[in-house]
Amino acid sequence: MFRPKVPTNPTPTGLVIPPTIEPTTTVRPTPAPTPVAQSSTRPAVQLTPGTALALVGGGTAVVLIVGAVLVSMLLAVAISGVSVAVCAVVLRSLLVSKRTHR
What we know:
Blueprint: H1 49-100
């Protein structure tokens, strides 16, 4: 019952001839065209003191907002964990007091 059954391969009927491979013509790859450097039609970005100050201010605002969101999420997880721990202690004390006051 627990012995594996190995299938037996049937003997081929008739004459078995391996497939023949016909020679094909050789194809030589053509060399890829050399890339030509294209000149850019758009103007180069120039930072003025005003735009640099705006970029620094925007980056600072983004960092502060992302930091506040992450800290609030961490506080939410911590408060949830503390509340679950308090509930567990209260339930445990209720169950222990029930056992001793029969």
